[in-house]
Amino acid sequence: EEQFLESGGGSAQPGGSLRLSCVTSGFAFDRSAMVWVRQAPGQELEWVSYINSAGLTTRYRDSVQGRFTISRDDAKNTLYLQLNNLRTEDTAMYYCSNCLWTECTRIQRAALRGTGTQVTVSS
User: Hey, is 32 helix, strand or coil?
Assistant: First the structure.
């Protein structure tokens, strides 16, 4: 059974930083592209960033480009997302998932297996 355990969320002020982690098991992490998605209250799920299995190629949505950094540690089966220069609009529940490279931007809520980690940005 594939498992995803997100952590690292919390409260931060605008301009602050957080580091999210996603510990996984039950699948070949080192052969999987991985994605971070988020969902704010009353809004649709949106992809944030994804990384290929080799860790050499990354993609970011425009609103987080230059502020967030995705990375992975295959030895620990763990995905990370460094959130810098946080904005109030980054407030959301963040989830991770594995994905096919061509499908990482189309992850559906029903496909998420973790409970997520809440990020709240406010002054």
Answer: coil
The pLDDT of residue 69 is 98
Express each pLDDT in 53-90 by its tens digit: 999 999 999 999 999 999 999 999 999 999 999 999 99
Q: How far apart are CA 41 and CA 113, in angstroms?
A: 19
Are 13 and 24 spatial neighbours (Cβ–Cβ below 8 Å)?
no
Whether residue 91 contacts residue 21, with contact meaning beta carbons closer than 8 Å, is answered with no
Three-class SS of residue 31? helix
Q: Cβ distance 19 to 8 under 8 Å?
A: yes
101, exposed or middle or buried, with CB in 10 Å at 0-12, 13-18, 19+? middle
pLDDT of residue 23: 98
